[in-house]
Amino acid sequence: ATMDFEAQDDGVVAKILVEEGGGEVECGLPIMVTVEEEEEVPAFANFVPDAAGGAPTAPAVAESAPAPAAPAAAPATPAADLPYHIVVGMPALSPTMEAGTISKWNVAEGESFVAGDSLAVIETDKAT
To answer: Is 48 helix (H, G, I), strand (E, B) or coil?
Structure first.
């Protein structure tokens, strides 16, 4: 089955983390990042969610331990240094949904949306 994934609040798409047709994504794993203002979008150009999947509804900021020194790779900006943002997880569009595939994004990076807008069409793991 395919279902619309609707925005719950107003915002701006900062970064799309999963490509259309990119395969199944478990519910809760990050699919996009949203911000409140369009001018905050460039800060997320190199954003990569943490390996653990991060919190699906709030910015994940680990305050307990200093970040270990990573091998020289593309420098990632610590979440604490980024503007307020929400890491959006793959939604569970039904009580039994475990994973889904983004069939189509209805928004692009840098685009504003309002509550009720369809952000994406998601193919669920259920047959139609």
So the answer is: coil
